[in-house]
């Protein structure tokens, strides 16, 4: 994992990643996917989870059972995903965030805080999907009105 700290002398030192990456049964991992080993807890991938190509899973991440993770997803260190979570392509999840079971995230979404309720989410930052759709429509209407005034 990408674990570093600055010591008392101001030198950047690598934090040892000495634990394990534990992969459950019937897990599929695509090409060029990186799974970092744990530093304070094992990195864990639950049973029946499917991971596409070009995915980065940080150290200490715990992914539940039956999850689907599409291409180019980045999950930062110490994040936790429940069971049956679906991450669309290029979703980014910041460190130390927890995502409840049965959450689906639209492609290109950014998770910056815990998601505690099952459901569909999207956006940058991620919000409930209906809110994200309203924001998108309002932004397009505002942009069109602004453009038409020129």
TrEMBL record:
CDD domains (alphabetical): LbH_LpxD (cd03352)
GO molecular function, one term: N-acyltransferase activity
One of the Pfam families matching this protein, by short name: Hexapep
The species this protein was found in: Aegilops tauschii subsp. strangulata (Goatgrass)
Protein name: UDP-3-O-[3-hydroxymyristoyl] glucosamine N-acyltransferase non-repeat region domain-containing protein
GO BP term, example: lipid A biosynthetic process
GO cellular component: membrane
InterPro entries noted in UniProt: Hexapep (IPR001451), Hexapep_transf_CS (IPR018357), LpxD (IPR007691), Trimer_LpxA-like_sf (IPR011004)
PANTHER family: UDP-3-O-ACYLGLUCOSAMINE N-ACYLTRANSFERASE (PTHR43378), UDP-3-O-ACYLGLUCOSAMINE N-ACYLTRANSFERASE 1, MITOCHONDRIAL-RELATED (PTHR43378:SF2)
Entry keyword set: Acyltransferase, Lipid A biosynthesis, Lipid biosynthesis, Lipid metabolism, Transferase
């Amino acid at each position: 994992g990408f674990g570093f700290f600055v010591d008392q002398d101001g030198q950047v030192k690598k934090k040892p990643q000495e634990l394990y990456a534990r992969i459950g049964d019937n897990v599929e991992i695509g090409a060029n996917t990186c799974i970092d080993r744990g530093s304070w807890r094992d990195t864990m991938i639950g049973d029946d989870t499917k991971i596409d190509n070009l995915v980065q899973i940080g150290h200490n991440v715990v992914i539940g059972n039956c999850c689907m993770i599409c291409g180019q997803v980045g999950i930062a260190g110490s994040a936790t995903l429940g069971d049956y979570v679906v991450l669309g392509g290029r979703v980014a999840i910041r460190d130390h965030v927890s995502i409840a079971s049965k959450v689906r995230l639209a492609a290109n979404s950014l998770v910056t805080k815990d998601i505690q309720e099952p459901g569909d989410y999207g956006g940058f930052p991620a919000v409930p999907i209906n809110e994200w759709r309203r924001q998108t429509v309002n932004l397009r209407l505002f942009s069109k009105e602004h453009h038409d005034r020129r």
